[in-house]
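Good day; I would like, with your permission, to put a structural problem before you. What I wish to show you is a protein chain and, alongside it, a tokenised description of its three-dimensional fold. Thank you for your consideration; the sequence and its tokens are set out here:
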Amino acid sequence: VPYDGENAVEVAVQQINKPMPRVLDKVENLPPKFGKIIDRCTAKYQNNRYSSADEIIKDLESIEYVASVLGDKAFGLNLKKEEETALVTTTDKRKITQFIGRTKRDKQKKEEIKEEIKRTTNKVFIIGLVICFILLVLIFGFFSGWFDRDKEIAVPQFIGKTYEEAVSEAAQYGITILRGEDVFSQNYEQGYVEAQTPTQGAMVKEGAAVTIYVSKGRKNDVVPSVKGYSVDAAKSILETNGFELGTVSEAPSSQGKGVIIDQSVAAGSTVKRGTKIDVVVSNGKGDNLVEMVYLIGKDFESARDTLKSMGLDVGIITYTEVKTGLPNIVTRQSIKAGYEVEKGEKIDLQLTKLADAPQNPPENTGEGSEENNENTESNGGN
């Protein structure tokens, strides 16, 4: 300490009450400004001291500049006491003034740099927040499987949809649709998916292919016979075979009432499944009807006896010449076999006649006979 005393108490009292010795008196060749800086730093009252280190630095910088301008004069080297007051010339004052101005500009520039740093810091902070947000989204996406190319998905149901609907829905799942060969379908109309591979619910990787098979409609099928059945039985038979029962009408028949005696599409025909088959049922009022039998190939006497046993008669007889064979053989009949006719009706017949041989007309030919050496056709004949 710059105080002398016989004991510590005396030194402490001097420190409190006695002014601080001037440093310029103790150290030679110091700039006067430096002495002032020391005095201010060691002032006994806080209000007389520097409020911040920046103020001290500013004063020290001014001393440094003055020293660069004045050289040794700034430190009073080799000068007399009376010359110390004349150290700073007018030129030096102008330079000092310029330095102070420059110092102010430098301070302003420093403030501008601070503001720019502050703005840059804000930008960096905002950019950092954005980057953090993006990273969080990427992390969430990673754990949620957004970037998992090998993730598996369940195959949706394409059956029953059109080809276009299946393709559109598959695209939403990231699945590729392959179209297999079109197939006949008993369940779906033409243009709708009948089957798929893999099936609904199967787990596949995204981008996998699913093959679908589109219906080309129902396949034609063979019509069954429903003659001799009741309407209810015929309906069941037709539906089992993929057909539908159409209209039901009545007609006289020797068959029992309600028994089917005819159908619109003959048994054994091939038609599209789902076709409606109309039927005719007996009204039970055909007691006088008989079913015509096959007479062709029989001799006249046998044919005549058969007709009489059925309650029928022989009608008009015509002939056709043959070079070989037997005479009086039935070659044609006016009512085809299987058709129903009323009892007492006359059935016309065509018989054979040997060429260049005398013809002996058969007995009991009915109402009339007629020779004909050409092939003649009777209405409805076989």
Remarks:
- The chain has eight helices and 15 strands.
- The first strand starts at residue 152 and ends at 154.
- The two ends are 158 Å apart (CA to CA).
